Automatic annotation (TrEMBL):
Keywords assigned by UniProt, alphabetized: Membrane, Transmembrane, Transmembrane helix
Membrane in keyword set: yes
Transmembrane domains' residue ranges: 196-216, 222-238, 250-270, 282-303, 315-339, 359-381, 393-415
Name listed for the protein in its UniProt record: DUF1109 domain-containing protein
């Protein structure tokens, strides 16, 4: 039987069932397998005019996700389940159960000091006690409005736990961060809405004060007066929602809120003064934070209570070797794409196997980010009951699509990055500059000089004598070289419509030539020059 995930929403349903003992048994078993309790409906819950040969049950369906569309999702799930099982069950009534919410105040029991007074030592002991330093490790929770005297009387009149309560040696306190009179207690729906509006306004005021503090560095002159005044726009909501001043007079609330606004604005000004990043950096940071929160919560909501989480003990060890093999293959693929842009065959360039992993890190990371965002979107849809998580075909299709998206995204990003890096290296070689390395592949401009007067065998020759060629090294007897000047000729011939032009890459035996590093080009817009050389060569195909 599947282990049900902790529910967030409970929906009570009135089920109309065929009045048959076997049908009732099958219905109870089917709901029990899903972790949904079933009982017989009480007389007050039954319809006033029941259908003939029908009986009624009450089931409690438990779902994860938001309250929005939860009842509709539960009814659809039950309807699909009874249809697959072939049961004579119909949902006649469904209602969302809202559990009563009770706010409690926590009193911490602490040891008292018999030498309380007004001296410095007594004040230090009281400060230490108020910060939890003298707590005994016992917490008593009670309804708001209960005073410390009532809590002490309650503790003195009963015994609980191994350490008895002694009114002469113990006391109770409410932590400074807690609210002894939480406003959630006994508030009406209208009061709750008003309180949330004030909290939202206070949060917006914090953000406005922070932005206005940074804006002092973005404007000059009298324009600085505008953000300086707007920074106090949220002073009243801040003072009204703080537990220390919510019951005080309006001037006190405004004074406390103005102090908060001033401190937050000063913090924003200090941060902007140190970073000097401008509004674009901070807006980008806020957007990135929002994306991270959206992705994190979405992935959690997509995976909780799923097959992947329940069987992660064998899915993770099985997936690591597959991901590692994909990692290595992508690195080799990107190196091959880079060399192919120059027409150099794969395997003819010396390359350490270690570099296949750094080159594939960024494409794999970007692909993983896109896959996580896709998963997060599915998780949010699941949370609001738009995507039916119980549909196996839906889960399988999403998993397959997610895997394909991850693989294809990593391959496409890797190929584009490798081709872009090769293009930059080619441009540098054509301008007479030494190109940058690419994860273990280092191109070098070399001057090629035959070491003998006899003709030199050349694959796809001839050998250029007046300018340098690009080399990435050789792992065998032959070395492949890329001629940047020949690329210019290829472009000219292509524009002229000449189809049979020689390729830009050629190969020679390493023992037949001498390779010397070329000096940079003087004008930085033409291939690096080479000193004149004498010799003969023979072109072979």
């Amino acid at each position: 039987m599947r282990s049900p995930a902790p529910p967030q929403q409970r929906i009570r349903m009135l089920l109309e069932v065929v009045d048959d003992e076997a049908e009732l048994t099958h219905t109870t078993e089917a709901f029990g397998e899903r972790g949904w309790p079933v009982r017989a409906a009480e007389p007050a819950e039954r319809p006033a005019s029941p259908a003939p040969r029908r009986t009624y049950l009450v089931a409690e369906v438990r779902l994860q996700g938001a309250r929005v569309r939860a009842v509709r999702h539960a009814v659809d799930d039950v309807s699909r389940m009874v249809k697959r099982a072939g049961l004579g069950v119909w949902v006649r009534d469904a209602q969302l159960i809202r559990a009563p919410r009770e706010v409690l105040v926590a009193y911490h029991v602490h040891r008292t000091n018999s030498r309380d007074g007004d001296g410095l030592r007594a004040r230090a002991l009281r400060w230490w006690r108020d910060r939890g330093g003298a707590d005994t490790g016992r917490i008593v929770r009670t309804v708001p409005g209960t005073g410390p005297e009532e809590v002490l009387a309650d503790l003195s009149g009963r015994r609980f736990g191994p350490e008895p309560f002694d009114a002469a040696a113990h006391g109770v306190r409410v932590p400074s961060y807690a609210d002894p009179r939480p406003p959630e207690h006994d508030e009406s729906p209208e009061e709750r809405r008003v309180r949330w509006l004030w909290l939202g306004a206070a949060g917006a005021g914090v953000l406005v004060a922070w932005i206005c503090g940074m804006a002092l560095h973005w404007v000059s002159g009298w324009w600085r007066l505008l953000p300086a005044l707007l920074a106090f726009a949220g002073a009243l909501p801040m003072g009204r929602t703080a537990k220390e001043t919510r019951d005080r007079s309006l001037p006190v609330q405004l004074a406390l809120g103005a102090g908060f606004s001033l401190g937050i604005g000063a913090l924003g000004a200090i941060m902007e003064g140190r970073s000097q990043g401008g509004p674009g950096m901070w807006l980008g940071g806020l957007a990135l934070t929002g994306i991270i929160l959206f992705t994190g919560f979405g992935v959690w909501m997509a995976l909780r209570g799923t097959f992947v989480v329940r069987h992660s003990a064998w899915i993770v060890p099985l997936g690591i070797p597959v991901a590692w093999a994909m990692y290595a293959w992508l690195g080799d693929f990107m190196h091959a794409i880079y060399l192919d842009e120059f027409g150099i065959p794969e395997g003819t360039v010396p390359l350490e196997g270690f570099w296949r992993y750094p080159v594939a890190t960024l494409p794999m990371g970007l692909a993983l980010a896109s896959a996580l965002i896709f998963t997060a979107a599915a998780g949010w849809l699941r949370h609001f009951h738009v995507a039916r998580g119980e549909n196996r075909m839906y889960a399988v299709s999403v998993t397959v699509l997610l895997a394909l998206t991850y693989v294809l995204t990593s391959v496409i990003i890797g190929a584009e990055r490798a081709a872009s890096a090769a293009g930059q290296a080619a441009d540098a070689a054509q301008d007479g500059r030494q190109p940058d390395g690419y994860y273990g592949i280092q191109g070098t401009l070399l001057c090629v000089t035959p070491v003998r007067k006899d003709p030199v065998p050349v694959e796809r020759g001839p050998i250029p004598r007046d300018h340098a060629v690009l080399s990435f090294g050789s792992s065998g007897d032959w070395i492949w070289l890329w001629d940047p000047e020949r690329v210019r000729d290829l472009d000219d011939r292509s524009e002229a419509g000449i189809p049979d032009h020689p390729p830009a890459v050629f190969a020679v035996r390493r023992g037949d030539v001498r390779l010397e590093e070329a000096k940079p080009s003087a004008d930085a817009q033409s291939p690096a020059p080479c000193p004149p050389a004498t010799g003969a060569e023979k072109t072979t195909s």
